[in-house]
Amino acid sequence: MQKTVTPSGSPRDEAYNFAYLDEATKRMVRRALLKAVAVPGYQVPFGSREMPLARGWGTGGIQVTAAVIGPEDTLKVIDQGADDTTNAVSIRRFFARVAGVATTEATAEASIIQTRHRIPEAPLEAGQILVYQVPQPEPLRKLESSEAETRKMHAWGDYGPMYVRLYEDIARFGHVATTYSYPVLVNGRYVMSPSPIPKFDNPKMHMSAALQLFGAGREKRIYAIPPWTEVKSLDFEDHPFEVQKWDEPCALCGAPDSYLDEVITDDQGGRMFVCSDTHYCEGRRDAGHRGRLLGTDAGRALARDGE
Amino acid sequence: MQSMSSQPQLGKGFDEPVLASQRCFRQILAAMSEPGSVHRLGEDVESPTGVSAAAMLVLLTLVDHETPVWLAPRFASAATYLRFHCGAPVLEAPSAATFALVDGASVDLDLGAFNPGDDRYPDRSATLVVGCAAFEGGRDVSLSGPGIRGDITVSPAGLDAAFWQKVAANNARYPLGVDLILAAGNEIMCIPRSTRIARAAEAC
Ligand SMILES: [Zn+2]
Fold first, then answer.
1. Among B63, B120, B148, whose Cβ lies nearest the Cβ of A155?
2. What's the CA gap between A205 and A64, in Å, rounded?
3. Which is the catalytic residue, given A275, A283, A291, A299?
4. Band of residue B201 on the pLDDT scale cut at 50, 70, 90
5. Are B192 and B133 in contact (CB under 8 A)?
6. Which residue of A177, A225, B135, B181 has the smallest Cβ count within 10 Å?
7. CATH assignment of A1-242?
8. pTM score, whole prediction
9. Which backbone phi and psi does A198 adopt, to 5 degrees?
10. Dihedral sign of CA atoms A193, A197, A202, A204 in order
11. Which chain A residues are within 8 Å of B64, Cβ to Cβ?
12. How much distance in Å is there from the Cα of B10 to the middle of ligand 1?
C-alpha cells in the first residue's frame, strides 16, 4: 500500500518555539536563504546554531527546514533514499513535535523534502522545496585547505585547478573517478558541491521545477539552486559526463532507470540490486511492476511492503 | 506593551508574529526563487502613510537590530515604525544599509548608492524594497535567468522611465549587485541580480 500523509497525531510541543529555532535565528537564516537564491551556487555564511540532534545528523539541513516550514507543510525526510532509517525517522519526529506538521513518505505529497544522499527518482514539481543536509559544502576543499584561498578562487571564477584534478583522473583511470559529490557549475558561474548524492542524481538538479536549498551546519554555509536553473556537471568535450548504469533492472520492481543499491542476500555470495529510493520502488510494485526476485525469500526480506 | 491605537505613527505589527512572519517569508522566498512572479502577502498590517502593506510586511519579516535600514525621503515616516516593531537602526546614508525602502517612481533612485557586496562576499549586498503602483499597466519588460522557465514578460506600473535601465546596469554586475523586491498594495515581485532584463520586443 502507498503511504499517504500522516497528520502529526499529537499537537506540537508548546515548550518549544514553533519549529524550535528562536525568531531572531530564523530571520538570520531566512536572510541568508534569500541571498543564496539570488546568487545560485554561491555559499552564504550563516550563524549556525546548536540543534538538539547529534552532530553529523544534518543540523544545517534541519536549520534550513526550521526556517522555512509552516503548519500547513507536509514533510518527507529521506536518508540514502529510504524513509525508514534512524536518521530520517528522528528528523521527521522532531518536526512533527516542534512544528506539528504532517509527514509523508510519498514524494508527490510533500511540500518540503529533507534529504541526505539522494534526490527522489520521481521528478519534483513546482512549489516543492528540496532541503539537502550537507557535511562539506566546499567543492574545492580537497584542492585547497585554506578558506581564504577557496573564497578567492570562487570570487575570481578560478576553477582551473578543479578541471586539472578531474583530468588527472581521466589520464589515470580513463574516466573521472568521483562518483559522489561530483562538482557542478551553477548558472554558469559558481562551482558547487551537490553534497554526497551519487553523480547519478546530478542531472536531476538541472532545470528542476523545485527550489533546492542546501544547509551545512558544521561549516556554517547555506546555498541554493532556484527552479529552472542551469546545473552542469563538470566535464570535458572528449570525456562527457556520464551517470552510473547497471547491467540489470531493480530485482523488486524491475525499474530499468533508477539508482540501485547492491544488497547481499545470503552467505553464499548471493546478491541483488534494488532501488535505493524505497518509496519509488514501492509505488512501482503497487502499480503492478514486478522484478526478478519479487516473491522469492530474498525479495520478501527486502520488500517490506511487497507480498 | 501599551495600546497603539493612540499612536498612528507606530501602526500595528504582526498579530501572531511567529506564524505570520513564516507565511510572509514563504511568499518572499517563492518570489525570489521565481523572479517576475507576483505573490500576495495576506497578513493584516497597519502601515505608515504612503507605505504599502506589502513593503511593510517584507520589512517586518526580515529586518531586526542586525540589519540597518535606509529610507527614501518619501518613506521617512516609516522610521518610527521600524525602530519600534523591528528594533532596526535607521541610517542617514544608504551605503551601509542592509535593507532599504525606495521609491521606484523617483528619478533620483540610485542603485549604485547601495552596497553591492564584494567579490568574496556577494551576499553582503543590500536588499531594496521598491515601492511601485501596481503589477500591471506599466511598460512591458522581458525577464530571463535562474528561476524563470524561458522568459517572462512583466509590466509593473508607476516606475520611473529609467528604472529598468538602472536595474539592467545593476544586474550586469552579477554576481555583485543589489536584489529588488517590488511592492504594491498587498503584492510583491522580486528582481534579484541574477535576472537578465530585456525590452519585451527585443526578446521576441
Ligand atoms: Zn525498485
1. B120
2. 18
3. A275
4. low
5. no
6. A177
7. 3.40.50.11310
8. 0.94
9. -65, 150
10. negative
11. 24, 27
12. 59
Tell me which of B202 and A109 has the higher pLDDT: A109
Taking the centre of ligand 1 as the mean of its atom positions, its distance from the CA of residue A280, in whole angstroms, is 7
Handedness of CA A74, A77, A81, A86 (dihedral sign): negative
Q: Do the beta carbons of residue B147 and residue A227 sit within 8 Å?
A: yes
Question: What are the residue boundaries of the structural domains of chain B, listed by start?
Answer: 16-203
- Asked if residues A257 and A232 have their Cβ atoms less than 8 Å apart, the reply is no
**Cβ–Cβ contact B21 with A under 8 A:** yes
Residue ranges of the domains in chain A?
Answer: 1-242, 245-307
pLDDT in tens, B83-139: 999 999 999 999 999 999 999 999 999 999 999 999 999 999 999 999 999 999 999
- Chain B residue whose CA is closest to A37: B33
Q: Is there a contact between A35 and B123 if contact means CB atoms under 8 Å apart?
A: yes
Cβ neighbours of B30 in A, within 8 Å: 127, 211
- Look up the CATH superfamily of B16-203: Bacterial phosphonate metabolism protein PhnH (3.40.50.11310)
Per DSSP, the three-state class of B60 is: helix
